[in-house]
Amino acid sequence: MDIAAASGTGTVQALHAQDGNFRPVEDQLTEEGALQILVNGAAFSMTMRTPGQDTDLAVGLLHGEGELGSWDEVASAREVPAAGEGCSDAIEIVRKSAARQDRRPAERRLISNASCGVCGKVSAEDLEVQALRGDRAEARLDLALIPVLEGRMRSAQELFSRTGGSHAAALFAADGSLLVLREDVGRHNAVDKAIGHLLRERALEKAAMLFISGRVSYEIVSKAAKANIPFLLAVSAPSTLAVKLCREAGVTLLAFCRGGKATVYSHPERVFWEGQGNADAPAMVLTAATTRKAV
Questions:
Q1: Taking phi first (over 0 means left), then psi (-120 to 50 degrees means alpha), and beta for anything else, what does residue 120 get?
Q2: In this structure, what are the phi and psi dihedrals at residue 44, rounded to the nearest 5 degrees?
Q3: 141-142 vs 89-95, strand pairing mode
Q4: 278: how many CB neighbours lie within 10 A of its CB?
Q5: What does the pLDDT read at residue 127?
Q6: CA distance linking residue 108 with residue 37, whole number of Å
Q7: Which residues pair with 74 in a beta bridge?
Q8: What is the pLDDT of residues 100-130, one digit of tens each?
Q9: What is the DSSP letter of 120?
Q10: Which pLDDT does position 257 carry in this prediction?
Q11: In angstroms, rounded to a whole number, what is the distance separating the alpha carbons of residues 173 and 250?
């Protein structure tokens, strides 16, 4: 089977089977490969990802892990020869000497797959999520904006349009304008790439909404909260832990956001329908036993 990689995709020769018949086809599939992340020369992590925007991925991952506070702490970011069998790519982040004094040394030496965001966690304390900061608790979201956000995200998913096999993470400003969209074979990788991009642009504070194409679990909530993003939207379902942590962190979680519908799982007081003020929100009482309720 021949695989030719190009811009995040690989062309694969295959057989299409239908009704007992076979025909040769060429499919474009989302590319997946290993990336080793080093911090000041020390191996920090290995992750599977879709090649491209590797520096953004590394910076976003380090920020999400609390290893990097801002782009100003970075002295350099460069591709280096990978150390380790089967790892073809590596990115080294060199922190400024002053930044290293305030950060613990890189120690998350592990291999994570494209859907794992909790590898290396060793205790319940590691699963705690940072609460929103500043005035973000006062943010409000008009639910009439959701179909608009969904359309803008979908139209920007070029990799998904070609392959049908990638996740997307889109960061929107409060007015609904798309700040950045990143795609990857892994959900949390896409989020890291999007956050990493805005972090490098020193524009992360503009992000008010994170919209992801897949499901919501612990690592997505953790990254959104650490980035101080008040609204987390998803096309698919959340986990019970994601709901619990969103409620604790002050993040408004909306899932099943498709076809003009959504399900609000936390902090419904922040959402409203256009022209109706906030009248509908107080009627939605959310408890630990809350079942799905379509908005």
A1: left
A2: -105, -45
A3: unpaired
A4: 13
A5: 54
A6: 10
A7: 95
A8: 555 555 555 444 544 554 454 333 344 578 8
A9: T
A10: 92
A11: 18
Residue 101: enclosing H or E segment and its boundaries? helix 97-101
HEC secondary structure over 154-221: HHCCHHHHHHCCCEEEEEECCCCCEEEEEEECCHHHHHHHHHHHHHHCCCHHHCCEEEECCCECHHHH
| Catalytic, out of 116, 119, 246, 257 | 116
pTM of the model as a whole: 0.77
Say which residue, 100 or 193, is predicted with more confidence. 193
Six-digit token string for 110: 């592990």
Q: For strands 74-79 and 89-95, give the pairing.
A: antiparallel
| Rounded Cα–Cα distance for residues 269 and 293 (Å) | 15
Structure tokens at 231: 């609204």
Assigned token pair, 45: 């992590």
CB 274 within 8 A of CB 142: yes
Mapping DSSP to helix (H, G, I), strand (E, B) and coil, where does residue 58 land?
helix
Domains of the chain, CATH where assigned: 1-31 (no CATH), 33-116 (3.10.20.10), 134-283 (3.40.140.10)
Distance between CA atoms of 29 and 160, rounded to whole angstroms? 9
Q: For this structure, is 116 an active site residue?
A: yes
| Cα 211 from Cα 183, distance rounded (Å) | 12
- What average pLDDT does this structure show over 236-252? 90
Written as six digits, the tokens of 285 are 């009482």
CA–CA separation, 43 vs 270, rounded Å?
Answer: 42
CA 257 vs. chain centroid, Å, equals: 16
Q: At a CB cut-off of 8 Å and minimum separation 6, what does 83 contact?
A: 36, 38, 43, 90
Tell me how far apart the alpha carbons of residues 74 and 92 are, in angstroms, rounded to a whole number: 11
Instruction: Write the CA distances from 202 to 52, 72, 177, 183, integer angstroms.
Output: 20, 9, 17, 21
For residue 8, what are the contacts with CB-CB under 8 A and spacing of at least 6?
30, 31, 50, 51, 52, 159, 166, 183
pLDDT tens, position by position, 167-184:
999 999 999 999 999 999
